[in-house]
Amino acid sequence: MSQRRNQAPSSSTHHAMSPWRFRFIVLLILMALVVLAGRIVYLQVVDQPFLKGQGDARTLRVETIDAHRGMITDRDGEPLAVSTPVVTLWANPQELPTDKATLTQLAQALGERPADFISRVDNYRNKSFMYLKRQVTPEPAQSVLDLQITGVYGQHEYKRYYPTGEVMAQLLGVTNIDDKGQEGLELAYNDYLTGTPGKRRVLKDRKGRLVRDLHLIRDAEPGGNMQLSINLRLQYMAYRELKAAVAEHHADAGTLVMIDARNGEVLAMANAPSFNPNNRANLDPAGLRNRAITDAFEPGSVMKPLAMCAGLASGKFTPDTVIDTSPGWMVLDHRYTIKDSLDFGKLTMTGIITKSSNIGMTHMALALPDAAVWNMYNAMGLGQPPEQINFPGEGDGSLPSPFSWSKAKRATLAYGYGLSASALQIAAAYTAITNDGERIPATLFKRRDPVKGKQVVSAKIAHQVLKMMETVVEPGGSGHRAAVNGYRVAGKTGTVRKVGAEGYQRKAYRANFVGIAPASNPRIITMISIDNPKGKEFYGGQVAAPIFARVAGKALRLLDVPPDDPHDTAEATR
């Protein structure tokens, strides 16, 4: 009996499971499988759009396709402003590695001091974006991306490049780092030059790396191209000569405008000092000004041929009418003294232009109706915004109202004081002399069709005044240094005292010259103004006229204008 008590119960008897418990467990497993299958069906069928959207939100991206800015070219299609592809490197500081070795490697690839770079990254650690380096050329940018450092990305962009550098910087203007126009034509026509970005859908991994380009949503549309009237060869030559003259005469600045005498197209527009738009590290803001358009100044005696048009148009004077200018000075309104440089005695109207006699112009102006000279200037576009230019900051100049004018005001207006105009306005006004009395508005763009101007004087008077201006450049004339071998030249000098805080300054001048060549069949009009020459010479005939001679001679040859005297040209080129 004791043996039976000590005998252990059988294993099968101890672990036996009741049938109801087994069925319950099986039922629970089946129910779990049914719930799981139902959830799978729900997610895959009923809730599929939501899940797909969540997945796409983490992997699908819509990226912007940058549109390059329109190109600016000269009249012959030579590029003046182009957009080149660059890469902007940026990072998500929260994704960047924290170890100094990797950050040092990245800093060295970016060309930065490691300590400064690591400090910069630490300052951005709580943010999700920071620029590493903007507008990097593709090769150096790719070398940084090839390091495959987590959190470093590249964005393709465009950067503006100006092949001509400082030669026409003020006319073209500049764009900012975002490729938006800030100055000059880049600003004036920013909307036209700016393209429309495109869009594309892409697939990226969780680190933001491109896996696949899925499809194009909208193609990028590049900005519009602009063709200027500028002749690049003439522009280079004009800038070189102007810059040299400003340096030679220790002047504050200089400007030169050359326009086509037949249709008003601006062939060259140079300013000195200038700046390099491709490297603005040490930019002087004064160099940004396009003085040829924005700066208005008293022109002085370069206005005398235009005022002479009013005298001849009145019928009271002819080119041969004689006026006694002795004793070389006169007093008007009991207090205003007008002088000539010398006592020229009796002069014809032509002689008044040749010798640039203020007294002669005064006698003429006082013999005309009060508003006669004013009306002529106004008809020639002075005192008004330049037509068809649309340039930021363009100067209107000033042409005071002629009502209740004193004799002194009428007189000074006739020899170029008491009004102001830009170099471009003056050059454009002279198209009336070169186009049979028809003034043509100036333009910065190449014209496709013939342009109709405004008839301001008769063709006869225009020819007479042009002939008068030829005597200025002949031996004995105030502008004889403007003569060009082989070509007949017409011109007019002007020397103006600058206005300071206390009125006209005694030793600060502006030297001006307007030249037309060839006078036999005008092709170019050139206005030159040198601001405050400080050398021994400061008269327009000494400073500005020689610039015209050098510029016009080369320009006429570049434009294939046949000489009036082939023999003289051959001698000059030997």
From TrEMBL:
Which part of the chain is the Penicillin-binding protein dimerisation domain? 65-213
Q: Which GO terms describe its molecular function?
A: penicillin binding; peptidoglycan glycosyltransferase activity; serine-type D-Ala-D-Ala carboxypeptidase activity
Entry keyword Ribosomal protein: no
Catalytic reactions on record: Preferential cleavage: (Ac)2-L-Lys-D-Ala-|-D-Ala. Also transpeptidation of peptidyl-alanyl moieties that are N-acyl substituents of D-alanine
Superkingdom in the source lineage: Bacteria
Q: What's its membrane topology?
A: Single-pass membrane protein
Q: What is its EC number?
A: 3.4.16.4
Pathway(s) this gene product operates in, as recorded in its UniProt entry: Cell wall biogenesis; peptidoglycan biosynthesis
Location in or out of the cell: Cell inner membrane; Membrane
A GO CC annotation given for this chain = plasma membrane
Instruction: State the active site.
Output: S301
Pfam families found in the cross-reference section: PBP_dimer (PF03717), Transpeptidase (PF00905)
Listed A to Z, the keywords are: Carboxypeptidase, Cell cycle, Cell division, Cell inner membrane, Cell membrane, Cell shape, Cell wall biogenesis/degradation, Hydrolase, Membrane, Peptidoglycan synthesis, Protease, Septation, Transmembrane, Transmembrane helix
Domain Penicillin-binding protein transpeptidase: residue ranges = 254-551
Segments crossing the lipid bilayer: 20-42
Q: Which Gene Ontology BP terms does the record give?
A: cell wall organization; division septum assembly; FtsZ-dependent cytokinesis; peptidoglycan biosynthetic process; proteolysis; regulation of cell shape
Q: Give the protein's function.
A: Catalyzes cross-linking of the peptidoglycan cell wall at the division septum.
Q: Give the family per the record.
A: Belongs to the transpeptidase family. FtsI subfamily.
Protein name per its UniProtKB record: Peptidoglycan D,D-transpeptidase FtsI
**Which organism's genome codes for this protein?**
Larsenimonas rhizosphaerae
